[in-house]
Every structure is written in structure tokens, then in C-alpha cells.
Amino acid sequence: MFSSIVHLSRLARAGWALTREGAFALVDPTDLPAGPAMAIRLGRLLGAVVGRRNPQDARLAAAFSRLGPSWIKLGQFLATRRDLVGDAIASDLSQLQDRLPPFSDAVARNAIKAALGRPVEDAFDEFGPPVAAASIAQVHKAQADEGSLAVKVLRPGIERRFRRDLDTFFFAAHTIERIDPEARRLRPVDTVEILDRSVTIEMDLRMEAAAISEIAENTAEDPGFRVPKVDWSRSAKRVMTLEWIDGIPIADRDALEEAGHDLKRLGALVMQSFLRHALRDGFFHADMHPGNLFIDDEGNLVAVDFGIMGRLGPKERRFLAEILWGFIRRDYHRTAEVHFEAGYVPDIHSVDDFAQALRAIGEPLRDRTASEISMARLLTQLFEVTELFDMKTRPELLLLQKTMVVVEGVARHLDPELDMWTTSEPIVGEWIRKNLGPEGALHSAAEGAGNLGRLLLAAPELLVRGERIAAGLATMARDGFHLDRESVEAIAAAEARRTRSGRVALWISALSLATIAAALWW
């Protein structure tokens, strides 16, 4: 009960910050259940009194920044979940800057000594002040025999702070699902679990170093793309050392032109690199905003900051390729079939009806030039339509969609006339031919033969297990199903606990609304 009160106080503080920034003005309560709708209207009313006077100045991103590192990460994550928060809130949160004041040089040096087991002076010839600071870590420039290095150091105590706030996020998600059964379709608890896993991985710098290493192997032969080299001898869980990247930020269009780079080539390179990684490798940089992309002297695209990565399995890769290919060819029926084959749309719906919905998205594109068609917007509309057909939230596809929006924006910043379809055709077409053509059929046949061989090897053990199960079922059918006294008592105790927890949940929910309302009022 005490922990519930602590979580409520933290949520009340967050509610007050949102009110002060006028953030509730961004939320439309029309379609919300009665309880949340009333809370939103109260927040909007109080925001008009104590918050920003002009609703156009409402800043949800500013409120999340005020609340600290955990909320910044939550905001960045929710920016990818337009299905949860809507376009207006997602657009506001997409501006959230992950920048915080740096911690002291002395603290960084102590952290490096503890992580590497040797003083900074022994690990590096020179160690400079921080050059960038974010919510989880900051980066220093250092020198060694190998040349210039980038040293990333976790913030002190960041794991404990994130754990505390994530517990509060879980409390809020569970409470929402108890109060509003309709909200379970949006899977708020699952959303927090995904955020939890993402942050846990991001706070282990060995995992980021491993991601860089994997990307480096995947892209070793890729034209025009590279990643910094990992210095494993100077890396640990809380410290990571990489090759220092000297290059022009991809957002600095004027500097790129002055250096003589071909901006049209760079725009195509950004889009093709992303699609190649997503389709061919099923492993892609999921935070490809302009601050993480540089162009080196040779004209290579260099990506940094691999804390957030996306993975796509074979089924998801086929889904992406066939969706894009189907819209290119206006084959809406095949595109609909892909959704059903992947299991994304339940069989209770009609393929023909779904194809009709897809046609409503695709046909308006016919009168536009290729350079006017946005693949990112296409995916966004696609996911909006799939909600009507009970398509469940697919986190890996939402991360893909979010990344494609950013990548497309970067590519068109470099080349406003970029034809996304012509640019992507070589990558998508190659994947289609390799995986769904004759070569793909031979590969699938080889995989099928291998699976059959493994099944035959396991057959004796499976037969023994099947015989035991059959014997057990026969005994139950003859003698009936019996529970001993201990089992009956355990079931009774569990039912009693469930009943008590239900009553406690109702009281917590009521207290939550009262506490948040009081905090908003005072």
C-alpha cells in the first residue's frame, strides 16, 4: 500500500508538470472513457488558469524534459506510438531533445577507473571534457596511440533512477487496464515492458558495442556506409570507447555542398542503406535522426549512437517487402493476402474487404508524381486502416515505421525531389527476387529438408512422450480427475487473494484520481 502511495505522488507531480505546460490541450477527450475524459477536461481547465495562455504554445515535450531522464525516454518512445497517443501528441514528442547538463569530469574519471580497473591516465594519453550529454550517458574525446577516440560514460546512479520511474510507469499501466478494460487493446503494460527492455539494453554499453560490431559485419561490403570501430579493450558495461568520427553533420546542407558532396547521391544513400539493413539483415539503426548521421571526407555515410536498434524476423521482412512492392504495382489483393498470411489481420475478416480498404489508400496516389508520394505516410495510413480490421499492435513494425519517417525526412532534406520508389526499387526488388523467386524457393526447400531431418531424429523421443501422455489420459478417463487436499487448499487461497487484490485495486484507482485531481488543483 505504501508503494502505491509513492507511485501516486510521482504521478501527481507529473500531472502538475503537464498542467503547467498546457499539455492537456493536445489531448482530445471525446473518444475517451468517462473517467479519463473527466480527468483530461479538469487538466485542460486548470491548465488554462495556471498554464500557458495560448493553447498553441502547449508543450508536452517541455513537460517531459522537466520531469527528467526517464520521462524523456518515455516521451521519445511514445513518439513512435501514434496508435496510442495520436498524431498531435506524437508530433510534439518527436521534438523532444535528449540533452541534459553534463556531470563533472571528476565523476566521469572515477566511473572509467571503476569500469576498466585502471586510472584514466593509464587508459588514455589525453582525456578531454564532455562534448555531448544525454539522459543516459555523456561523451568525452580522448587520445591514444590508435588516434582520437570517443568515450561514452553512463551517468552515475542512472540505473536506480530509471528502475524507480519504470516501476511507477508499470503501476500506472496496470491501473489503467484495471479501470478501463477497453484500454487493454492498446496494451499499455506491454508498452512499458518494451520500454523497460529497451532502456535496460541501452544502459549496458556492452550491448551497444555488440550492436555496432554486428552492423559492421553486416555492412562490410556495403558501398558508402560504415560505422565507428569498437575499442573492446577500453569498453565495459558502463564505459564504451569508439573510433572518433570526423565528419560533417548530415543536417548541415550548406557545409556538405561547400565540401563538394553530391546531395542527390547522399539522399539516395540514406534511404537505400536503411532499406538494405532492414530487409537484408533484419537489423537496423532505429534512431537515424540527423544528429546521429555524418558524412566523412570520402563521402561515406557514418552512423553513430546505436543504443536503440530494431530487429525484423523473416516474416516481418517479407511483410515489408511485399507491402511496398504491392503498392508499387497496385496489387491490393496480394497486399491484403500478405497481411492475412503473416497473421496480422484475424481470419474473421474478409481478404476482399481488406483489399478494398487498401485500395482507398493506394488509388489517391495514382495522380501524384513519384516524388510526391511518401512511403512513411503510406505506412502510417496503412496502420490506421488495420485498426478497423483488429490488427494488433506490432511493436517491431511501429519502430520500423517511426524510423522510416525519420529516414525519409533526412533523405528529402538532402534532395527535395527524391523519388522514393525509384530509389528503393533496386533494394526491394533484389530482396523479392532473392527470397520469393527461384533462388528463394531453393533456399526454402533446403531449410524444409533440414527441419524434416531434425524432426526424424527427434521422433523416438516424441513417440515416448506421446505414449506417456496417452496413458495418463486413459487413466483419467477410467478413474476420474482427483485433487488432493493440499491442491484444494492452494486453489482456495489463490481465489481469496484474487478477491482481495480486486478490492485493493478499486481503492487504489479511486485514490489515484483523487490525488491527481488534488495536485492539479493546488
Kindly describe this structure.
The protein has three domains: 2-98, no CATH class; 99-172 and 191-244, Phosphorylase Kinase, domain 1 (2-Layer Sandwich); 250-436, no CATH class. Helix content is 62%, strand content 9%. It has 20 helices and ten strands. The strands form three sheets. A four-stranded antiparallel beta sheet has the order 1-2-3-5. A four-stranded mixed beta sheet has the order 4-9-8-6. It has a two-stranded antiparallel sheet with strand order 7-10. Residues 439-452 and 498-522 have low confidence and may be disordered.
Order of helices and strands: HHHHHHHEEEHHHEEEHHEEEEHHHHHHHH
Tell me the radius of gyration: 27 Å
Q: Give the averaged pLDDT, no decimals.
A: 78
Instruction: Classify the secondary structure makeup into a structural class.
Output: alpha+beta
Distance N to C terminus: 24 Å
Whole-number total of structural domains: 3
Count of helical regions:
20
Total count of strands: 10
Percentage of residues in DSSP E strands: 5-15%
Write the layout of secondary structure elements.
Elements: H1 2-20, H2 34-50, H3 60-67, H4 69-78, H5 82-93, H6 105-116, H7 120-123, E1 126-133, E2 137-144, E3 147-154, H8 158-179, H9 188-202, H10 205-218, E4 225-226, E5 239-243, E6 248-249, H11 253-258, H12 263-281, E7 283-285, E8 293-295, E9 301-303, E10 309-311, H13 314-329, H14 332-341, H15 351-362, H16 375-388, H17 395-414, H18 420-436, H19 438-479, H20 485-521
Helix pairs in contact: 1-2, 1-3, 1-8, 1-20, 2-20, 3-4, 8-9, 12-17, 12-18, 13-14, 13-18, 14-15, 15-16, 16-17, 18-19
Domain ABC1 atypical kinase-like: 95-339
InterPro entries: ABC1_dom, Kinase-like_dom_sf, UbiB, UbiB_bact, UbiB_kinase
Pathway: Cofactor biosynthesis; ubiquinone biosynthesis [regulation]
